[in-house]
Amino acid sequence: MRKNSWLKKGLAIGLSTAFVLSLAGCGGSGENSGSSGDKTIRVGIWDNNQLAGLQQIADEWGEENGYDVEFQVTDWDSYWTMLEAGVQGGEMPDVFWMHSNNALKYMQAGAMLNLDDYIENDDTMNIDDFYPDITNLYTLDGSHYAIPKDHDTIAVIYNKAIFDKYGIEYPTSDWTWQDFADIAQEISEKGAADGVYGTYCNSGDVQNFWYNVIYAFGGKVISDDKTESGFDDPATVEAMDFIANEILPGCPPADAMANTGGDTMFQSGLLGMLPQGSYDVIKYYDADNVDDYGWVMLPYADVNGDGQCQKEERVSIYNGLGWAAYANTDDPDAAYSLISHFCSEESQKKQAELGVTLAGRMGCSDPFQEAYSNMDMTPFIDIEDAGTLVMRPYSKESNWESDICDVLVSAWSDPSTMDEVLTEVVDTMNADLAEENE
């Protein structure tokens, strides 16, 4: 069965307003917790790296309002399985993260609390203070169903010890994607006897790697109206050929990348460089050899051939999660109050200060630069002025993303087949988009 097919059959399984109302009481708030708070609000997230900082922020609200805030952390796949089951009548957290790939489905299913009245009556909340692209992700027919939690950008982490060992200069912010590829190949050649490679690019590394290359080259993943694939766009084809011919030669073999994550290989000293999101910084900070790590801004694609970086040639794919509440939580007022606290200017700055992630409110991310005392975080901030942020490509269901990654596996194994594989990618993606738009 296709992922999320339950939403394609919304009426058949009762995702009408009447059915949603019948699920009242499935939320977990309003129960006596037996601990310091009078009641408990349950919060669903999928990233354990953010737990400590978010718990600290939530506990401030809980102490003031007489609640315990209980976080439930599950991995990405289990998280969405949990939400699907919850909408169909199972347990649901009162407050939870929402993602661009799934927002429209859950909003249309009536699973997310309409926040309009709360926002209107909240003197601390001005929705215009948040990144508009992220706000729009969680807006349906003019109504708000989540408030931006954060935004993220991409930078490149590199291992200074590897660069030093092989006599290679550290990358700087004026580098190009060709420079990146050349350095990756040089490290792979010099490090062959040590099993060290220049970089890592799995077909599934979309937001943190090759989507950035596509848009830097002037290509696109999906049409603006989200009805057609962009993988037949000449600039996209050029970018994908560049990945096949210039970047993949500096990577481990495809089967090695399929079995071992890039972060694991990098932290094991087997990679020289790795594009990573601001949401991943915290997992490198605690490394024993953290002093060997440096961050640099993403390269640019010198499309004009003039050796000068134009803003549109340096692209960071970005995204942002939303704080949402279950439509049938037992305690909607408390659920919104907690969301409002998470999204307040003070908490958004504290989220950045604690190194949890960049803020969803504009102008609140500067403290992130100081969150990691022995790491320079400015590449994540500076790219917003030195480059262009492009919202992570998505559509109503976004099933096509995992499907095209599966198709691209063969091209990663044999880069010479990239052009013909892209034809299959276009067909697969267009079929998925046609199905979701029926």
TrEMBL record:
CDD domains reported in the protein's UniProt record: PBP2_TMBP_like (cd13585)
A GO-annotated cellular component: cell envelope
SUPFAM superfamilies: Periplasmic binding protein-like II
Residues making up the signal peptide according to the UniProt record: 1-24
Keywords: Signal, Transport
Compartment(s): Cell envelope
Alphabetical list of Pfam families matching this protein: SBP_bac_1
Highest rank taxon of the organism: Bacteria
InterPro entries: Bact_solute-bd_prot1 (IPR050490), SBP (IPR006059)
Main location: other
Sequence similarity: Belongs to the bacterial solute-binding protein 1 family.
PANTHER family (alphabetical): ARABINOSE-BINDING PROTEIN-RELATED, SN-GLYCEROL-3-PHOSPHATE-BINDING PERIPLASMIC PROTEIN UGPB
Name of the featured protein: Sugar ABC transporter substrate-binding protein
Source organism of this protein record: Candidatus Blautia stercorigallinarum
